[in-house]
Design goal:
Blueprint: E1 12-14, E2 17-19, H1 22-28, H2 36-45, H3 47-53, H4 58-72, H5 78-81, E3 101-103, E4 106-108
Antiparallel strand pairs: 1-2, 3-4
Amino acid sequence: MCSLSENAFGARIENGILFIPAELATLAGQGPNLSVEELLSVLHAFPTTFEKGFCWTKGRFKNALDSLVRILDGRVSRDYLHPESASTRHGMGATAPPDAEIRNGYVVPFPAGFPLKKK
């Protein structure tokens, strides 16, 4: 997977259809059932997954994402192209359950030790 093109991840548009490399679809987790909007959402939400999966630096990933956004500009809602500028309503956010434990910044929502036992 480390040989993917930095130019829009190797994606191209032909006759109004976006073609993406199989490696990109697989890493995005949907395979052939991936919409353009889902792809953009996953790319924006989980950049580190793609950086590691493609053996890229943050700069290379950003260049690839920026070039993909450029080829999709005018074809996809700007909310998906630039989600940081989208006017979205945020919910109250996820909170840890009352009996959760926090270790090194991670929530351990159940008492330590598996299997989980009913109280």
